[in-house]
């Protein structure tokens, strides 16, 4: 108890509060600028922490991380461009809400869902970290593939107008993800002799091109603003925040999905976001609203990806296994501070561990306050004239794409995918299925092949492992349930007619 009280005093010291506020602010900026991700923010700011106290340094980096994950939702909603892959699913309904003049409501909803999910994820880290970490270690290639397969079933959900076009775009996305070195054999594929393609196509330039540049091409054909100024006015009524509590079931469910995914090394926020959105749509009473401006949809997406933030620290702190790229950087930060991750960390450095876990709760409160206060300013982006906004967006896109690997090749990739996205949009081919293929393909393919190698080509391995069986069944239900429902309704209709 003395250790916890001491950690409380440490977390709420003026120095730590200042660095947490600064970290969240910088994180939101990194997340909100297309091409500059939370991972990049943590990596760039890591050297600053070398001279700090361990608790202060780690909390500062966690603030940047949490702020970055939330910040990515801002451009996803306002300019139909995810600040990072973590908020890619938010595009589906975010852009439609802006068209309806609900930019402010959407921004309030995302910060509310993000903060609640992050807070719950931090509580889970605090109380059940060791037990959850042991369960997550049971995941192998079969389980990873089954989860990715479940995420890919969303292609059918977001392709209501033409499932065939959606499936085609999904396969196109997986083809894009397959460019580079074969993850199993190490043989180059689809590189066409270009050394720049050996490492694959960087995700950020592809996403920026596919959504930001495509949207710029589309918007440049018109002379109006994204939405009318009077529509984006945010009425900060006291009761407005309470209205969001009607989505509490969606937030809780998506948070637990994000927490579950976050504990599994190698998955991350993008998968959690899509799975949460998919599950929310599947269980919603208002399925028809999804893809057309569903507030519940963006709440699910953002709760899912922010639910990862605390959970991804579970395998890192308890077992020394980084869950994603951000925690890999945090692992380096811990080692530099003389903290060796593992079970002994909670006994030898209990004060620092409790400080990190308590601080993570405070970080999400700070993030909520900043998001609420600044949402009024964010929403005003939607009333900026296009002749002013487009040059700014183009500059940010070029800088963001170049900054990933400091190479002009990534800028060329961005432009090419911008043209692809523009043409496909004009031909009424949905871009979201392609995005799903790009994000989930690298998880599905290598794990499918590894699972088959381990089982000597026996496909039944996906049905004999309990966890993978659950996700395979869920995938089949997601695909065939609408058909089953239609069949049942037809039978009932015939009986009623007779």
TrEMBL record:
| InterPro entries per UniProt | DUF112_TM (IPR002823)
Extract the signal peptide range. Answer: none
Transmembrane as UniProt keyword: yes
Keywords for the protein's UniProt record, in alphabetical order: Membrane, Transmembrane, Transmembrane helix
Location of the DUF112 domain = 17-436
User: What highest taxon heads this organism's lineage?
Assistant: Bacteria
Residue spans crossing the bilayer? 17-46, 58-79, 106-129, 141-160, 166-185, 197-218, 256-277, 352-371, 383-404, 416-443, 463-484
Write down what this protein is called.
Answer: C4-dicarboxylate ABC transporter permease
């Amino acid at each position: 108890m003395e250790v916890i009280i001491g950690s409380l005093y440490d977390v709420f010291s003026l120095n730590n509060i200042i660095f947490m506020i600064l970290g969240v602010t910088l994180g939101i900026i990194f997340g909100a600028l297309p091409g500059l991700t939370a991972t990049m923010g943590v990596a760039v700011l890591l050297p600053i922490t070398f001279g700090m106290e361990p608790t202060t340094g780690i909390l500062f980096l966690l603030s940047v991380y949490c702020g970055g994950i939330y910040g990515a939702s801002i451009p996803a909603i306002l300019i139909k461009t995810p600040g990072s892959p973590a908020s890619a699913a938010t595009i589906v309904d975010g852009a439609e809400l802006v068209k309806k003049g609900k930019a402010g409501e959407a921004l309030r909803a995302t910060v509310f869902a993000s903060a609640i999910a992050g807070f719950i994820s931090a509580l889970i880290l605090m109380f059940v970290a060791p037990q959850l970490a042991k369960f997550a270690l049971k995941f192998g290639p079969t389980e990873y593939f089954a989860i990715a397969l479940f995420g890919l079933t969303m292609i059918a959900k977001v392709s209501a107008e033409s499932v065939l076009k959606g499936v085609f775009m999904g396969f196109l996305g997986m083809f894009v993800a397959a460019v580079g070195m074969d993850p199993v054999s190490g043989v180059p594929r689809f590189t066409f002799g270009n050394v720049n393609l050996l490492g694959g196509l960087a995700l950020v330039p592809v996403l920026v091109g596919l959504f930001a540049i495509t949207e710029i091409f589309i918007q440049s054909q018109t002379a109006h603003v994204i939405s009318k100024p009077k529509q984006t006015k945010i009425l900060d009524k006291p009761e407005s925040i309470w209205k969001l509590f009607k989505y509490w079931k969606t937030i809780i469910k998506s948070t637990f999905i994000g927490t579950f995914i976050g504990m599994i090394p190698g998955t991350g926020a993008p998968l959690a976001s899509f799975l949460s959105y998919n599950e929310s749509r599947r269980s919603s009473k208002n399925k028809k609203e999804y893809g057309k401006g569903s507030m519940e949809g963006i709440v699910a997406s953002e709760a899912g990806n922010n639910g990862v933030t605390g959970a991804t620290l579970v395998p890192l702190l308890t077992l020394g296994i980084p869950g994603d790229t951000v925690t890999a950087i945090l692992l380096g930060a811990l080692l530099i501070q003389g903290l060796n991750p593992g079970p002994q960390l909670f006994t030898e450095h209990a004060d620092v561990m409790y400080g990190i876990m308590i601080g993570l709760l405070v970080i999400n409160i700070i993030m909520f306050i900043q998001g609420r206060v600044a949402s009024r300013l964010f929403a005003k982006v939607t009333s900026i004239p296009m002749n002013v906004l487009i040059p700014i967006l183009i500059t940010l896109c070029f800088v963001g794409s170049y900054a990933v690997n400091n190479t002009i090749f990534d800028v060329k990739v961005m432009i090419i995918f911008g043209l692809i996205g523009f043409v496909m949009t004009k031909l009424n081919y949905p871009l979201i299925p392609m995005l799903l293929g790009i994000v989930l393909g690298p998880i599905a393919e290598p794990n499918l092949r590894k699972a088959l190698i381990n089982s000597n080509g026996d496909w039944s391995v996906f049905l004999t492992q309990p966890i993978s069986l659950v996700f395979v069944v869920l995938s089949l239900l997601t695909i065939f349930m609408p058909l089953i429902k239609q069949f049942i309704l037809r039978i009932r209709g015939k009986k009623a007619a007779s």
